Amino acid sequence: MASQTLIFTVCTVAQLPFTKVLGDSLPPNISFKIGIVDANRTVFDSRTISLNELPMSEIQSLQQRYDEASLIAASKPFFADFFLQTKQYQTLIYVDPTVFFIGDIGAIVQVIKNYDIVLTPRITHKFGKTPYGDEKMFLNTGMYDSGFWAIRQSDNTLQFLKWWKERLFDRAHFNLCEGMNHEQLWLNYVPIFFKNVLVNKNIGWNLALHNLHERAVTFSENEWKVNQTEKLIFVNFRECLSFPKALNTTIQASGFDSIRKIYLANLTQYISRPPSIFSVRSALFPQISPWKRFLKQQLQSIIDSISHFPLYHKITK
What we know:
Elements: E1 5-11, H1 16-24, E2 31-36, E3 48-50, H2 59-65, H3 68-85, E4 91-95, E5 99-101, H4 106-112, E6 117-119, H5 135-141, E7 148-152, H6 155-168, E8 174-175, E9 180-181, H7 190-193, E10 197-199, E11 217-220, E12 223-226, E13 230-231, E14 234-236, H8 248-253, H9 256-267, H10 280-284, H11 290-307
Helix pairs in contact: 3-6
């Protein structure tokens, strides 16, 4: 598994503490690489590789075109293509830097042996509306989660990466009105356009804030389980580092807070405060301080009153 399979992530220098916790959660015999989008590898260690080091003509354009979050998103298939074609890995597993492995990674490796591309859906059951969002929001932001995907060496996979790179070259911004949510929204097409794709609905894979409404976590007999049926394999804490009070009930009811505390305890070994990282929900529903919310309401009230103020008055004597 060590020589054929690579787990990799992509982040900025500031986000490297996340990768330390991720690396600690991996078995020692598996290869792990970190793609850095804003610095040269020489600053770090043999596990890191800078985006500047990729021998691809598109890299400079990506760096000039995108902000930090978009650059991370757009560079993922470029790193993947490099690892498959240059480093000769047979299987790649991408995970966000905020992922933490709790269960057996071998289960993922076994699945990818039979498929070229493996994705996980962000939800697996109809639900209407939750404090996180409604079904419409998932349609707007993407059905499959870009925080995890796995691929196997094949012509079909290389065609997928070529297609994805072409789209992300200039269409990896965050602009839902223009049909763009970084790299994630493009994944909607993958099961349609490409062969041998698995949409893995195992609820023990990719536990995250967006699917807590359908998953409850318990710990018994020395292992974590989801809905008391499936073993928990990995968790993505990207949107759980901070969250509005409206989601606290969901966090508590799912049993997720216990795992979150374990993760934060591990993270504080490397940094006192979690680094900033892009979150779709936070971008859509930014947290506003009370005084800003009050000021916004007052300004809106003034605007509303002006819009109803009569432009002409009949002057009488």
